[in-house]
Amino acid sequence: VVKRRGEIIKLTRTEYELLAYLVSHHGKVLTHKELLHNVWGPEYGEESEYVRVFINQLRRKIEDDPSNPQFILTEPRIGYRFVKPE
Hints:
Elements: E1 3-4, E2 7-8, H1 13-24, E3 30-31, H2 32-40, H3 48-62, E4 72-75, E5 79-82
Antiparallel strand pairs: 1-2, 3-5, 4-5
């Protein structure tokens, strides 16, 4: 279950798996390829647009200001990094 300010946030299965992977590797920069391989499956690796779309969906659901994210940070030309809330 994912909650924001005490309210349950509805996530799709892929959104949940992506968020869970990011959280379990918090602080580490994760490449698009690594995220694809571990969330979508080993047959994926070049479809980085999938990651971008799902990251944007997650940001809209968990961030106060999705255009200025505090939790899911972009590492330009590399991937993403999850920062745990304090």
